[in-house]
Amino acid sequence: MDRITKSLIDDFSKVMELETKDQSKLFEMFATYSILSKHHSEKFELDDVVGGEGGDCGIDGLAIIFSGVLVNTLEEIDDILERSGIISEVNIILVQSKTSASFDGGEMRTFGDGVVDFFSENPTLVRNDFIQKKALLVEKIISIAAKVKKITCKMFYVTTGKWLDDQNLLSRISKIQEDIENLSLFKEISFSTLGAKEIQKYYRETQERVSATIKFQNKVLIPDIDGVQESYIGTLELKEFLNIIIDDLGNIKRGIFYDNVRDFQGENDVNVSIEKTLRSSKSGRLAVLNNGITIVTKSLTVARNDFSLEDYQIVNGCQTSHVIYNNRDIVNKDISLPIKIIVPANDEVINDIIIANNSQTEVKKEELMALSDFQKNLELFYNTIDDPKKRLFYERRSKQYDSDSGIERVRIVTISSQVRSFASMFLDKPHLASRFYGQLLEELRDVAFLEDHELLPYYTSSYALYKLEFYFRNKNLDSKYRKFKYHILMMLKNYTNNEKVPPFNSKKVNKLSEEINKILYNSNLLDIFKELTSIIEEVVEDINDTETTKRISLNKELVDKLQELKKETV
């Protein structure tokens, strides 16, 4: 392995708090993380996308993304489908990585055969637990194919060598794609080969802020506005606009739509109308027929007509952007669309712009969650924890900490993980944690994230999940118990406290949180977690049964057994 790649893997190992010295396993995780971060804008757990040893069908990494949402359970798929009706796109990403300095045709063929077998109706290869779980998700996708506009299969083969467009290897790749094409499952199939330089670039981009440079000729500087450093309005040619929304791989930059409050809605009436305009002889009228794009950027450098944007978001225009992207190969790129570029003075202005630009359509609660006063206060509260060992970082906005190389990525808490950990630990609802977080928020709207709630319980539940994931990630706890991680959070609270949880707007709940924190900060925490997993082993008849965690009655069974054991030790 070359020195640069090794250095980046060392950095990756540090920010992900990985203790293993197995270079092959580290490279698998490094490659999958770097690739998936190009396709998914939010934080994810490595154990959810990187498989175990043996029975992996030659697949190291596997992720399934529903319209920008990384799904790991059947419940998440059901929830998203119920809320959206029609799914615009499902991306299935598969990764195989080798520390070899060359591209081996036999290994590539093995990877291809494994992918074909994974999608096969009658598989023949042995499957480990990770592959079995992902296969169930794929079967679910196939069963709802009529409600999915587009399913893609993206394969990545990674080594530490250099790709040279070897004709024999290209022939093998073509055969692999042909075999997958014959399954008649996918609208798009791709097979990408990444060498050392490519995977190094992918990883570095996970730590960089999004940027783009365009020529913005037809614009007007808007006069001074309170709270706005500078802003422009005008029309931008599509060929320049594509530089804003497309990355160097030709993929749409999903992360830049995070503050748009809603994802691409697929082929609804409005989007079909935009597409018809783009494809018609009237496409030149786009500038007067479309409401346009609003971009908020943290940094803007202007040199005559050259505009360089850094750390920007499209807060209005997600639908138009995706339709343009989907038709990029056939539209007249010289036509223009309306655009506003705004450099706000602070986050309050950003929030006002987001709300104003989305006020004409109904939005769901979770779509504006990051803008609430509670969320802002929670972020500030996390920042008051000074001890580096106890520190976590609350991420209200996707990727807001990505450019800070001093932050371990596993210490970043998203709104999604926060609501799951809080609901499990303090509301005794671990059976709901596998739901899509937006649906979970709807169900908990009257009991979680309320303005008068004390903030410490939220941090406590997140820190407990962080420690638990650390032990699973580094194999201190058997991975078979990982599916019960939210139940373990509930049990840890009951291990500490036999009484009913105090109201979340009372100071008493902080006392309970502090008692739990004492355990979390203690050196014997791993022993306590092992004790809790032994209770799961005793109560659950079949540890491998994926339906067990959804059973509400399991919550009481686990707590009752825990209390029984506590009485025996008194």
List keywords for this structure.
570 residues, alpha/beta, six-stranded mixed β-sheet, five-stranded mixed β-sheet, 20 helices, 13 strands, 42% helix
Mean pLDDT: 89
* Rounded radius of gyration (Å): 25 Å
Shape descriptor reads: globular
Q: In percent, how much strand structure appears in the residues?
A: 15-25%
Structural class: alpha/beta
Per DSSP E runs of 2 or more residues, the count of β-strands stands at 13
Enumerate how many helices there are, as a single number.
20
Q: Level of helix content?
A: 40-55%
The separation of the N and C termini measures 56 Å
Largest sheet: 6 strands, mixed
Strand order of the largest sheet: 6-10-9-11-8-7
How would you characterize this protein structure?
By secondary structure, the protein is an alpha/beta fold. 42% of the residues lie in helices and 15% in strands. The chain has 20 helices and 13 strands. The chain has helices spanning 3-15, 23-39, 74-84, 105-119, 129-143, 167-181, 196-205, 238-245, 269-279, 286-289, 318-326, 347-357, 373-382, 415-425, 437-443, 456-473, 485-496, 508-520, 525-539, 553-569, and strands spanning 61-66, 69-70, 90-97, 151-158, 188-194, 211-215, 218-221, 228-237, 293-303, 306-316, 336-344, 393-395, 412-414. It has a six-stranded mixed beta sheet with strand order 6-10-9-11-8-7. A five-stranded mixed beta sheet has the order 2-1-3-4-5, with helices on both faces. Strand 7 and strand 8 (228-237) form a beta hairpin. The chain is globular, with a radius of gyration of 25 Å.
